[in-house]
Amino acid sequence: MDIAAAPAPLLIDRFGRRVSYLRISVTDRCDFRCVYCMAEDMTFLPKKDVLSFEEVEAIAGAFIARGTTKIRLTGGEPLVRRDIMDLVRSLGSRIGAGLDELTMTTNGSQLAKHAVDLFSAGIRRINVSLDTLDPERFRAITRRGRIADVLSGIEAARAAGLAIKINMVAMRGVNDDEIEPMMAWAHGNGMGLTLIEGMPLGEVGIDRVDTYLPLRELHDGLARRYSLTRLDKSTGGPARYVHVAETGGTLGFITPMSHNFCESCNRVRLTATGQLFLCLGQDDQVNLRDAWREGGAQALDAALDHAMLIKPKGHDFVLDRTRPEPAMARHMSVTGG
Ligand code: SAM
Ligand code: SF4
To answer: Which has more confidence, 209 or 43?
Structure first.
């Protein structure tokens, strides 16, 4: 008689969506203070509250056992977490053993130092956030970053063999005049460009209503000047992609505000303290740190089952002058973008 244990059931929520993508925020800290993401003086979590790498690995392992095939490390800035490469290497060793892909979203400031090791650990693609190519504007948006560090990081990553997608938060009156130059630069260097609509998460340093740029409008403007072909490429995520004939590159649009993409959502987000957020725009969460610390693997598994029962149908972000407070009090750096 075959007594092999049945494989653990996949993670499927009550709307029939299969969760196969875990985003892990490894720290809420960052060396930048981007105006749309953070306040000037942020209070960060005490280090003792942050999950150890062993705990992150245990939680990631539970997800992989339940069918998670893709993990993205993010933050805050993932590359400022001390010894982060230890975690990258250990998660990287799961590639091919349940995990299909390990990726990272980074601001690029520390990339020059880590690019080769990221590739050696099995990472093949990264997202680098960059909202402008102008050094002074870069400094104003990040409040403290040096664009030269990011550009040399990108160079190093390309040289190491990493495919790069540039993420640009498009803001009216801040960087909307740079969308075409950024596209020419990114595509000219073999990188994709994805434009993101600013989302109302946390108190920050800009007026979100004034700077909000609906990407549908922008897309239609670009479509009058470029030959855009819709690509079917679905990441199960919020991005829609087009191929731009004139530049030969891919342009993505992440439009949480003007197009609700929740029906195909396949992801959940683990914070640095072990809270599992089930939607970027809702508060529903499960405490995986306590589950693991108090009940080990079995409790963790039960917590994942519970998570599937409470994953919300979708977010309901709205930008409204009469409701100036952010839709969510927590910053993007907490849930990890
Ligand atoms: N520090 C890393 C970085 O900047 O790439 C990773 C974390 S960051 C929170 C992840 C992504 O979220 C970045 O591309 C950033 O531009 C984006 N982001 C941050 N706050 C946002 C907001 N309020 N609305 C839209 N995108 C935001
Ligand atoms: Fe830091 Fe990324 Fe937020 Fe900018 S967007 S402050 S780089 S976490």
So the answer is: 43
> Which residue of 28, 29, 30 sits with most ligand 2 atoms within 8 Å of its CB, as the best mutation to test the pocket?
30
Instruction: Pick the atom of ligand 1 nearest to 127's CA.
Output: 5
Q: Are 286 and 250 contacting, i.e. CB atoms less than 8 angstroms apart?
A: no
Can you give the pTM of this predicted structure? Answer: 0.93
226, two tokens: 């470029």
* Domain span at 77: 21-335
Which range is least confidently modeled, 127-141, 184-198, 203-217, 319-333? 319-333
For ligand 1, pick from 169, 258, 269, 271 the residue to mutate: most ligand atoms within 8 Å of CB: 169
Q: Which two tokens stand for residue 206?
A: 């800009």
Measure the CA–CA gap between 192 and 168, rounded to whole angstroms.
11
CA of 37 to the centre of ligand 2 (A): 6
Ligand 1 lined by 196 (C-beta under 6 Å): yes
* Domain assignment of residue 5, yes or no: no
| Index of the ligand 1 atom closest to the CA of residue 37 | 20
Helix (H) or strand (E) segment spanning residue 80: none
Residue 321 main-chain phi, psi, to 5 deg: -60, -30
Q: Provide the domain count of the chain.
A: 1
Tokens 């004939």, residue located: 245
Looking at the domain assignment, is residue 208 inside a domain? yes
Segment 61-105, tens digit of pLDDT: 999 999 999 999 999 999 999 999 999 999 999 999 999 999 999
Which band of pLDDT confidence, cut at 50, 70 and 90, is reported for residue 250? very high
Residue 333 has pLDDT above 70, yes or no: no
